[in-house]
Amino acid sequence: MKINNNFNDKKPEIEFQKHINAEEEPLFELSAKGADASNDIEYVTNADGSVTALLKDEDGNITYDVTVNSEGKTISETTYLDDGNIDTYTEYDGSDDKNIILKSDFSYTYDDNGTHVLCESDFNSDGKVDLIDEWAFSPDGNITNYKSTSDSNSDGVFDEKYQIEYDTDGNPVNVKSNFEIDNSIDNSKQGALGDCYLLSGLNSLSYGDNGRNLIEKSVIENADGSYNVNFQGAGEVYTITEEELALARENGNYSSGDNTVLLFEIAFEKALTNVKENPEKYPKEITDIINADTSNLKQYAGSIADYGNMDLFCYFMTGEKARTIYADENFENISELLNNFNAEHEMINVNFTDNNGKEYSVFDVEGNSCKLLSAHSWSLKSADNDNITVVNPWNSSEEITFNRNELEKYIKFIETAKIPEM
């Protein structure tokens, strides 16, 4: 059994030589410092235009690989054990400095016959294990059991446990879980789903007592361990079972961290499916959003990632209608809303413009370069004459403060809605 929990110890010391503007040169060159002449580096061009460099040892075994996109920016790194199994895997968003990590360090342990695999994950890149996954396989390679233990609120206590057993076809047949829903909305990270509008809306509600009270009154625990999510604005209640929570967490596409956020994601997905299947029960402006079918919007097919905005979120949560204000049409109105912003009584999602399809990078007040992701909702935490603080749903535990005069240049539009008193 081989264990390595430190990515930086395993990772070779490398140098990049990028050739972005020279067509006769490769996209980039990789060199391992101190490597002897027997080391070999192979370059593979992928179907999406990215290039992967494979560092091999003297026997031709891959020990490390790195993939860069067509702009020469790193998007993933992998280290391997001596037997060829993956040791650690890190996936980035393609930033110059790799400071935004989508998937962090994964450390794998295998038994000698390959029937048991343990994966320890460090999602926060703080050197501490946040998630332990264990898989059991039959001798013919079919998964028979899966266990997961997670420190869902990053308090150092592994408090989220679930176990899934599978039949011979790989279908879950027995799911046990122990989820705690504590109504906290302060430490979640958007997963693979494009539901930034939903997560930013929940984050906005968490900034004041009225919003937190609304979240608390929307969640009821049942005697059987399931939860009811009461969307008070729409007058609808959806029940989420422990099994649904466990399978959604194991799926990996939903947000990580706060269990309350995961609960709302599943319930909201059920609500939007209900709108799709029963449009006659809902206002036309809501069904128009979900059934939109243009070159820019996908027709809703049962996923919260298909399309959404604050209007959908507010309709279900509060019954209030959101307003969308575009900076190029009425920037004075945006400026006035920022001047009078009070997180206790209203929520604002901010969307930034792009530069011919590329995101702008702006320095925050700490001097850190931050990429203003476009086509993406950020929640507004606070604003005054000097600064604006926003939260990216990719990591709701981090607040980013910018100089207001600087950031206002990049606002494309905002969505705003009132928070009812509870």
What distinguishing features does this structure have?
6-stranded antiparallel sheet, alpha+beta, disordered N terminus, Cathepsin B, Chain A, 2 domains, 422 residues, 9 helices
Walkthrough of the structure:
This protein has 422 residues and is an alpha+beta fold. The chain has two domains: 1-102, no CATH class; 183-422, Cathepsin B, Chain A (Alpha-Beta Complex), CATH 3.90.70. It has nine helices and 28 strands. A hairpin with a 5-residue loop joins strand 11 and strand 12. The longest helix has 19 residues, at 259-277. The chain has a six-stranded antiparallel β-sheet with strand order 3-4-5-6-7-8, with no helix packed on it. A six-stranded antiparallel β-sheet has the order 9-10-11-12-13-14, with helices on one face. Strands 20-28-21-25-26-27 form a six-stranded antiparallel β-sheet, sandwiched between helices.
Average pLDDT confidence is 80
The CATH homologous superfamily of the largest domain = Cysteine proteinases
What is the CATH topology classification name of the largest domain? Answer: Cathepsin B, Chain A
CATH architecture of the largest domain: Alpha-Beta Complex
Provide a quick synopsis of the model.
This protein is α+β, with helices and mostly antiparallel strands and 422 residues long. Helix content is 20%, strand content 36%.
